[in-house]
């Protein structure tokens, strides 16, 4: 599964501080079981837009990672600044059987 968290850095906010916060969040997530890969990016046209993408073995692995103490302490404060939009995606390959097209209730 793929997670896309987008952020808009408020005008006047320190880019260096935000980048350090985002790096810490990514490193903390990367240390969790089920993490496969991830990266931080910044928009080419609008430098105030940033993204953290991560790949996970499963939605369960991602949700379990979010509930760990380390993630709650070091990553959630930064993740909570993400734009308010859906962030979890299933990866679609040529022969993928897709999930049903409705919101999941948890």
TrEMBL record:
<dbReference type="Pfam" id="PF03992">
    <property type="entry name" value="ABM"/>
</dbReference>
<protein>
    <submittedName>
        <fullName>Antibiotic biosynthesis monooxygenase</fullName>
    </submittedName>
</protein>
<dbReference type="InterPro" id="IPR007138">
    <property type="entry name" value="ABM_dom"/>
</dbReference>
<dbReference type="GO" id="GO:0004497">
    <property type="term" value="F:monooxygenase activity"/>
</dbReference>
<dbReference type="InterPro" id="IPR011008">
    <property type="entry name" value="Dimeric_a/b-barrel"/>
</dbReference>
<keyword id="KW-0560">Oxidoreductase</keyword>
<feature type="domain" description="ABM">
    <location>
        <begin position="1"/>
        <end position="92"/>
    </location>
</feature>
<keyword id="KW-0503">Monooxygenase</keyword>
